[in-house]
Specification:
Layout (H helix, E strand, L loop, with lengths): L1 E5 L6 H10 L3 E5 L3 H8 L11 H11 L3 E4 L7 H11 L3 E4 L6 H4 L3 H25 L4 E7 L16 E6 L4 E6 L7 H20 L2 E7 L1 E3 L25 H10 L4 E4 L5 E6 H13 L9 E5 L2 E4 H12 L3 E4 L16 H5 L7 H16 L15
Parallel strand pairs: 1-2, 1-4, 2-3, 4-5, 5-8, 8-12, 9-11, 10-14
Antiparallel strand pairs: 6-7, 11-13
Helix pairs in contact: 1-9, 4-6, 6-7, 8-10, 8-12
The protein binds nicotinamide-adenine-dinucleotide (NAD).
Nicotinamide-adenine-dinucleotide binds next to helix 2, helix 6, strand 5 and strand 9.
Length: about 375
């Protein structure tokens, strides 16, 4: 199949592009390299030494499969995006190209507005370009578990739609699960959902929205094949996801810093599982006329303090509790359905399996880049 990967230079997009190329798909990456620019803006950056996009593409073509690259800002260059889609004639487009850090979106006015402008306009441009060029193209979007909020108010979190009974008519029906964002970034993901519902209703746009859990880990089978293919690994308080922050601390013999009492339960997925799920979504598009298909892309649920304890038990690291910079419940329970991707063949990698390998890799390869102050750089909100 032909697949355009928007945001294919990023943490999830790069290993997914390699995986799809390895499986024989023709991949076209679109990225404006804004994440690399934000690394400079925050004086932070990947703990691994990532190659330039030019070197990545060259080595990927030599060692893995067919991958092309175009530098387009999908929020600002609609014509460039539309023309590329018309030239490539993809079967699927994967939309990773959003500003994805909740802490970044809460730093201040310019970061809030950038996140909204970039994410909402970019995702809307993709939908609009598809209906202009060919409405049968399958759009796969990366949403987040954060659109649901983290309460057990409605029980186990279903895949996108909630069963309800309308009291006045005693009718059973399904509605989009009530959106409950916890940051401006999560708010953009909630708004994305409405864009998809409307484009589906009006133009029959074929959409899979993957509500992904927090991604952890760094390597996949493909990124290991050459140093130029290594994936980025964020560990700072703005872009580093919680388990990756802990992995960087364990690998560098400093205490694991848990926000608050660490009682929040969250859904997690390893980076290689994330790439595998994208492959399943590409190869199994929704049927014609099917409503917006929503899958929860998660492997397991863990509490933050539970995660720290697993890592501490495996590595001997100390656990330290620090003030929580975020406005969120001190503790919550979470239960999540993930039957959709499982029905397509997804078999999750659970935490214990790869954790220690990632700690070793990060410890051996990246010690010289680690700055322990960077892990605690989150803004407060
Ligand atoms: P990332 O920041 O590493 O990658 C995003 C990529 O998109 C970057 O390379 C960036 O340069 C590019 N980009 C951003 N705006 C663009 C634009 N306007 N035009 C072209 N390119 C643009 O993020 P990631 O961790 O790979 O996340 C990818 C997607 O997955 C995001 O939408 C994110 O919300 C979602 N997601 C990620 C996680 C996670 O834990 N990393 C969890 C849930 C959902």
């Amino acid at each position: 199949m032909k697949v355009i990967v928007l945001g294919g230079d990023g943490f999830c997009g790069w290993p997914t592009s390699l995986k799809l190329a390895k499986e024989g798909h023709e991949v076209t990456i679109v990225d404006n390299l804004s994440r690399r620019a934000i690394d400079l803006e925050l004086s932070s950056g990947s703990l691994t030494n990532i190659a330039s996009i030019r070197d990545r593409i060259k080595v990927a073509n030599e060692k893995i499969g067919k991958i092309d690259f175009h530098n387009i800002d999908i929020a600002k260059d609609f014509a460039g995006l539309r023309n590329l889609i018309a030239d490539v004639k993809p079967d699927s487009i994967i939309q990773f190209a959003e500003q994805r850090a909740a802490p970044y979106s809460m730093i201040g006015d310019s970061e809030r507005r950038y996140t909204v402008d970039n994410n909402i306009v970019g995702t809307h441009n993709v939908c609009s370009a598809i209906v202009e060029v060919d409405p049968s193209i399958h759009l796969i979007h990366l949403g987040t578990m954060g659109v649901y909020g983290y309460s057990k108010e409605f029980g186990k979190i279903p895949e996108g739609y909630l069963d309800i009974e309308i009291k006045s008519t005693a009718q059973d029906t399904q509605i989009l699960y009530p959106a409950n964002p916890g940051s401006v970034y999560h708010m953009t993901k909630c708004l994305d959902q409405l864009i998809f519902q409307f484009y589906h209703k009006n133009w029959g746009l074929k959409v899979t929205d993957l509500h992904q859990g927090i991604v952890w880990g760094v390597e996949t089978a493909e990124t290991k094949l050459d140093p130029a293919l290594v994936n980025r690994f964020d560990y700072d308080g703005v872009y580093g996801t919680v388990l990756n922050r802990f992995i960087s601390q364990a690998a560098n013999d400093v205490p694991l810093t848990v926000y608050g009492i660490g009682g929040q339960e969250r859904a997690f997925i390893h980076i290689s599982d994330s790439a595998r799920c994208l492959q399943l979504a590409v190869e199994n598009p929704p049927a014609d006329g099917e409503r917006v298909r929503i899958f929860n892309q998660v492997s397991e649920v863990q509490s933050v303090k539970g995660l720290a304890q697993i890592l501490a038990d495996q590595t001997g690291a100390e656990v330290q509790f620090v003030d929580n910079p975020r406005k969120e419940l001190a503790e919550n329970e979470l239960e999540v359905a993930n039957d959709g991707l499982r029905s397509l063949g997804f078999e999750p990698v659970l935490l214990n399996t790869d954790l220690i390998e990632d700690v070793k890799f990060i410890g051996n390869e990246t010690k010289h880049n680690f700055d322990k102050a960077n892990v605690l750089s989150s803004p407060k909100w």
